[in-house]
Structures are given as C-alpha cells and as structure tokens.
Amino acid sequence: MAATQTLKVNTKKHKVTDKNRQSKVGKKLKKVLSLPRGFLLSGVKANIKYKNRFDLALIYSHTPCVAAGVWTKNSIQAACITYNKSHIKNKIQAIMINSGYANACTSIQGDKNCLISAKALASNLKIDSDAILLASTGVIGQQLPIDKIIKNIPKLVQTKNNTQDSIKCASKAIMTTDTYPKIYGVKMLLQESDSVESPDSKTVEQGNEEIDTQEKSACNELQVSDKEDSKYTSAITDNTIIKKPKKIKAKVWGMAKGSGMIHPNMATMLGFVMTDVAIKQSLLQEALGEVVQQSFNQISVDGDTSTNDMVVVLANGKAGNREIQEKNADYEVFKLALQQVCIKLAKKIARDGEGATHLLEVVIKEAKTLEQAQKLSKAIIGSNLVKTAIFGKDANWGRIICAMGYSEMVFDSTKLDLFFESKKGKIAIAKDGVGVQFNENKARKILSADTVRIVVNLKDGDYSAKAWGCDLSYDYITINADYRS
Questions:
Q1: 123 Ramachandran zone, left/alpha/beta (phi>0; psi -120 to 50)
Q2: I want to staple 394 with a disulfide (CB 3.0 to 4.6 A). Which of 30, 375, 378, 389 is the partner?
Q3: pLDDT for 89-112, tens place per residue?
Q4: Nearest to residue 467, comparing CAs of 365, 368, 347, 355?
Q5: pLDDT value at 146 more than 80
Q6: Does residue 92 sit in helix, strand or coil?
Q7: Cβ distance 93 to 64 under 8 Å?
C-alpha cells in the first residue's frame, strides 16, 4: 500500500506582485521574424495610384480566426471601417489592404466597392465573403480604382506565402509616406492551466519531497522538435494525479503603417496583428482594447486623427493550446506579448514621422493615477512647440510645463523634477518645479541623439506612463504641401 499523501496550499512561496510577474515574463519574450502558424502574406504592384509600387496586400489564414478590432474615433469614417465593424465578430480568414486611396468620403459607391472587392477576393480564395476584412489608406475623397484591384486579386492570392519575401512585399504594400516597413513579432511558451487534479490544492507534499504544481506561465525561446510531445506526462498516486503540462509554442506577429496624421486615439495608421494562440473572442477584444491604450493611443506626430485608423488582431488557434477562456496565467502571457508587439510597432511609427529627425519618448513617473500619467505624457508629446524645440535641440522646458498645464489634469507643479536623457547623457532641467542651472552645451549634445527622452517625476503617487512621438521639421511641411501629387 502506497504512503498516504497530505495536500496543502503553499501561498507564501508563490506570492508575486503583478508588476514583478510581468517583468519576469516580459524579459523572456523573444523577438521572431517568422509568421505564426497558418498565416500567409502577399503584396503586389497593382498601380492603384503610382506605377511600379507595392500597393495591394493580403493577410490569409489557412483556418478561420477569431478577430478583434479597434477603430478611429474620427466621426468621419472610411467605408472599410464601417464594413469591418459589421464583420469583426465573424470568423475571419483574410484581410485585403490597399494603399493610395482611402475610400473615405466616397458615399454609396465606396460601400459598394467594399462589397465588390470582398466578393472578388472570396471567389479567388474559395471562402465566404463574410470572412473577409478590408483596409484602405491614402488620399481621401476619391473612389478606389476598383478595376485595378479586381484585376490583381488573382496574383495576390497566387503569391501568398510565409517567406521573408512575402512579408517584405506585404509590409511595403500598406505604406504611404512611410520611409520603411514596420514589422515585429515575439515567440513564447504557454502552459496548460490545470496542473493538478485536486479540488483544493496547488501543492502536493509527498514524504520529504514537495512537488510544486503552482500555475505558471513562461515565455521562452521556441525549441523546434520533429517529435510530437505527448500532451502530458503523469505521475499517478493513490489519490492524486500530478500532470506536468506540455509547453505550447506560440507567436504574436504584427505589421503596421503610419507616418503622418498621427495623434492619440490612433492616427493615420493601420495595424495588423496575427497570432496562432487559441483565445475566446471577447477576451481577445478586451486584451486589444487595453493594449492599444498603452501603445498606439500613446503616439503623436502632428496632432491629426485620420478617417481610416484601425488595429485588427486575428487568432487562428493553430498553436494547439487549450483555448484561453478566462484571465488565467496564459492570458497574461499572451497579453504581454501583444502589448510588446503593439508598443514596438507604435514606436516605429513615431520614429518614422514625416520629416522626423528624432524619436521622442516622454515618461511620466510617480503620478497619482494611470489616467493622469497617460494624459500628461500625451499632452507633452502632442505639443508642436515641444516638437520644434526638440528639432532645434533647445532645452526649452517651459514648453513642456505649458503642455502639461493644458492637459486638464490637476498636478502639483511645485513637486515635479524634469530631466532630458539620451544615449549621450542625462541632465536635470528642473527640480521641485523650479528651473536649475544647467550646461546648455551638454543639453544640446543630449538632444542631438536619435532618441531623446523627457522624464517628468511628479513625486505624487505610484503610476507611470510613456508616450512616443517625434520632432517637427522643415521636411514635414515639404512632404504634406504636395501630398496629393
């Protein structure tokens, strides 16, 4: 007869704060270039607005996906936004994106063009047209050259693949004034949540050996194996089955476009994220909504919000994990991966601002609330006076305080400290709300770096937030003065 086991809950050993857990998991996310399982991309030159330029892209999944979307808050919305809002809860299998023309302010014909292009793509892919989403970017107020799009759909479908060439073509095809494609992906490991079949314990004590079966999530570099792992390895005892879950390999990968008309509440930006994680649609939507607030809604180039902004996530479940149906450890790992991808893409957009010479990051520390930190950082990043000062390498901190003042957030200006930072050094500009003596030459040197950071410590709470933008240069005017030509 086997020795009797005692079951006990070991809560102290695993008491970890959310912040610490996120930090540990975040460090284990690994950058990846390849697409998640089951996804294919393509991009072709359809001559939609310019000749010999990639301008029509396809995202395709072998199997239908659950989808989530976040849309522009501009009251004038493109036809594709209206179309997608009515389809986002369907099982989605493809997204087609065109650049050159926005299909915004195009009346009934714009809506018809959405239906025409969706049906044409569905016919070529041999799927239902209700499984298709659409996106457009470019000049507002002109009809899509629908004949050119229809003509190039067969080639778009035939060339879809998961190669680096396909990724390059697709990411180029969604660009307008962007100077480079914006892609980023991470890989991770998910773990099944039900480690021990026991009604009231997460730790099994067996003689002198304690077997820790606390729910864990881990993001590590994926190990490729030719062998099929069994779903579990099990140790069976008198009254407890201890199951060691299989680690599930998964990826989150995204591409985006955006360079001008970039402002919080998204921008003239399109973001497309793909994952092979299996997750409930409502949780996917909730995760995206939260992540967008910390990423795409925290960037600004020029203060304009577009008619076509969208971020869409497709999840096809090909990783093979048990579907995430609750906010468990796997959900947190996935959300952190999604957050990292979206923040990386948002920063790439900010860095590529039209005519930009600097990426600008604003950090608000020790705020009373998260809302306060986010709104103050947005106000600074959105100030044209701050942007022009950064372009001129001028440590004009009064403009920063001014922007904070019109943010509609109440704060104690007599407490704050302000710094400029970059890879070329750090310099204190204000302490306890009062300017301090500083070396102007050192400040100019710090502000000459490619990436400049403004740090404001409110010394009033435990919350922090970041926002990203760029300087405002002469070239911004040059680029936008003849955008339609």
A1: alpha
A2: 389
A3: 999 999 999 999 999 999 999 999
A4: 347
A5: yes
A6: strand
A7: yes
Contacts of 334 (CB under 8 A, 6+ apart): 188, 190, 250, 252, 275, 277, 279, 287, 324
Q: What pLDDT was estimated at residue 245?
A: 63
CA angle centred on 200, ends 197 and 203, rounded to 5°: 70
Instruction: Select from 7, 92, 474, 98 the least CA-distant residue to 314.
Output: 92
Residue 145 has pLDDT above 80, yes or no: yes
Catalytic residue among 72, 177, 213, 268, which? Answer: 268
Q: What is the pLDDT of residues 232-242, one digit of tens each?
A: 334 434 455 55
Give me 412's structure tokens.
């104690």
Phi/psi region, residue 298 (left: phi>0; alpha: psi -120 to 50; beta: rest), is alpha
Sign of CA dihedral 293, 296, 299, 304: negative
Beta bridge partners of 161: 41
Longest dimension (CA), the chain: 86
**Does the annotation mark 268 as catalytic?**
yes
Q: Is the dihedral of CA 406, 407, 410, 412 positive or negative?
A: negative
CB 247 within 8 A of CB 221: no
List beta partners, residue 243. Answer: 234
Residue 410, amino acid: V
Who contacts 319 (Cβ-Cβ below 8 Å, separation ≥6)? 36, 37, 190, 248, 249, 250, 251, 275, 276, 277, 278
Three-class DSSP category at 377: helix
Q: How far is CA 96 from CA 42, 173, 270, 452, in A?
A: 10, 11, 12, 36
DSSP string across 394-418: ---HHHHHHHHHTTS----TTT-EE
Token pair of 18 as six digits: 């959310």
Instruction: Please measure the distance between the N-terminal and C-terminal CA atoms of the chain and give it in whole angstroms.
Output: 86
Query: Are the CB atoms for 334 and 36 separated by under 8 Å?
Result: no
Q: Please write the tens of the pLDDT for every residue from 159-193.
A: 999 999 999 999 999 998 888 899 999 999 997 54
- Measured in residues, the chain has a length of 485
